[in-house]
Amino acid sequence: MAEKLYYKIGEVASLLGEEVSTIRFWADTFPRYVKPERNAKGNRMFHPQDLENIRLIHYLTRVEGLTLDGVARKLEENRDGLDHKRRIVEKLYGIRSRLGELYESI
User: Fold this and answer.
1) In angstroms, rounded to a whole number, what is the distance separating the alpha carbons of residues 96 and 91?
2) Helices marked H in 1-106
3) Domain ranges of the chain
4) 5 vs 101: CA distance, rounded Å
5) pLDDT (tens digit, 0 to 9) for every residue of the chain, 106 residues total?
6) C-alpha distances in Å from residue 104, one per residue of 47, 53, 96, 97, 99
7) Topology of domain 7-105, CATH
8) How many C-beta neighbours within 10 Å does residue 95 have?
9) Pick from 82, 78, 92: which is nearest to 57 by CA?
């Protein structure tokens, strides 16, 4: 997906396979890292950096199984290392998915 200037909350939720309410909750829980702007209608519009931070929060909660307090601590630590690990895991999930599709097509 090409990088956009803003992402609607529904787009963010769809990209991560989460409910809109979860994205809203994470944005409210981690305002230091997720700072969506509001459009004229009052809808949240997420910057690409917000999207990356939400992806990291998603990874820490869903893959690593951390609590919200654990996520907050991790976000304060080595962010570059966490983001690198998250990207690797996402690539591995993508490979796994493609392999499953190939297996089913045989």
Assistant:
1) 9
2) 9-16, 20-29, 48-58, 68-76, 79-105
3) 7-105
4) 32
5) 457 899 999 999 999 999 999 999 999 999 999 999 999 999 999 999 999 999 999 999 998 999 999 999 988 886 767 777 878 888 888 898 889 988 899 8
6) 37, 34, 12, 11, 9
7) Multidrug-efflux Transporter Regulator; Chain: A; Domain 2 (1.10.1660)
8) 10
9) 82
In the numeric block, the tokens 């009052």 are attached to: 42
Read off the tokens for 18: 């989460």
Rounded (5°) CA angle 96-14-86: 45
Residue at 23: amino acid letter: I
Per-residue tokens: 13? 């939720």
Whole-prediction pTM: 0.77
